[in-house]
Amino acid sequence: MRGPDDTLERDLVEKVRAGNRAAFDQLAAIHLPRLLSLSRRMLGSGDEAQDALQNALASTWIARAKLDPSKPIAAYLTTVTLNKCRDRLRRRKAAMLLGLGAFDPDLPVASDAPDAESEIADRQALRQVSREIEHLPILLREALVLVAIDGRSQREAAELLGVTEKTIETRVYRARQRLREKLDFV
Hints:
This protein has about 190 residues and is an all-alpha fold. The chain has a domain at about 1-100: Rna Polymerase Sigma Factor, Chain: A. Helices cover about 75% and strands about 0% of the residues. The chain has 8 helices and no strands. The chain has helices at about 5-15, 20-45, 45-60, 75-95, 115-135, 140-150, 155-160, 165-180. It starts with a helix and ends with a helix. Keywords: DNA-binding, Sigma factor, Transcription, Transcription regulation.
């Protein structure tokens, strides 16, 4: 059964297919925070994440005739965004192999601790975890980001990535195991 939000999105998708730019902007605004967070987690860099998301939205606009109003747009946008992140990761890896520079994520995090010492320790831990997530193989990283960070169910992640739920479960488990091996506080 579709709710009011689903009906609104379906109507917006139909308008987007017809070339209505305002409808596309409205549709993108609904999903922008979640997609940007996903991109940041995949790429580790705010600037790169924004670029990847802009490319994903531009690709969606260009291919708007392929949109299906009967299917959830969130899954489509997530898939396109993940693909753009994968492209950037491949280019980054190629650049690193050619010695064209390294990448150091700097993701600030809000701390619940009132003292500065705890905040510094939390930021250092986040940087270390972010670096280790970045070093995970892409298949493990995608599953981990979708399930553990983006909050998707294993079923949703499996549908997005075109694999079984068991595959997602295994990938998340292996990703967490690798992180535990590298980090003494996880």
